[in-house]
């Protein structure tokens, strides 16, 4: 799998694990669904840490900075799917700006 495609797939997997894990903890605590939800959330958050470490780029700061933009977009999508959230145009514009930032940070051509 080419590095760019692999990177995108890893970002998506990391987003599902981190956002899903945080959502599970939120549900367990704030919605009183119980300790099992919290436990699954903690495991998912740990999985996020491992998935992020498989990015082809070796620079932790770059990967996590770019992931921040993926997290913004993924959080809005999660809210739409899991909670019925409806983003407004400013949410969508902000998300698009974040994805542009991710693209520049991760995939801009660099010289060695």
Residue fraction in strands? under 5%
**Elements, N to C (H/E):** HHHH
Mean pLDDT across every amino acid position: 95
Largest sheet at a glance? Answer: none
Low-confidence stretches: none
Continuous helix count: 4
The count of β-strands is: 0
What separation lies between the terminal Cα atoms? 22 Å
Radius of gyration: 15 Å
SSE class: mainly alpha
The number of domains: 1
Shape: flat
The proportion of residues forming helix, as a percent range, comes to over 70%
Description of the molecule:
The protein is flat and about 50 Å long. The longest helix has 28 residues. It has 112 residues and is an all-alpha fold. Helix content is 79%, strand content 0%. The model has no long low-confidence stretch (mean pLDDT 95). Helix 1 packs across helix 3. It has one domain. The chain is built from four helices and no strands.
Features:
112 residues; mainly alpha
Brief summary:
The protein has helices at 3-30, 35-52, 60-83, 89-107.
């Amino acid at each position: 799998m080419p590095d760019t495609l692999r990177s995108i797939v890893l970002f998506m997997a990391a987003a599902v694990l981190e956002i899903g894990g945080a959502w599970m903890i939120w549900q367990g605590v704030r919605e009183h669904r119980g300790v099992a939800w919290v436990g699954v959330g903690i495991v998912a958050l740990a999985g996020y840490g491992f998935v992020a470490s498989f990015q082809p780029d070796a620079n932790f700061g770059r990967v996590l900075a770019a992931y921040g933009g993926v997290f913004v977009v993924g959080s809005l999508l999660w809210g739409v799917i899991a909670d019925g959230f409806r983003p407004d145009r400013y949410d969508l514009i902000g998300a698009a700006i974040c994805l542009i930032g991710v693209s520049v940070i991760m995939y801009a051509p660099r010289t060695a």
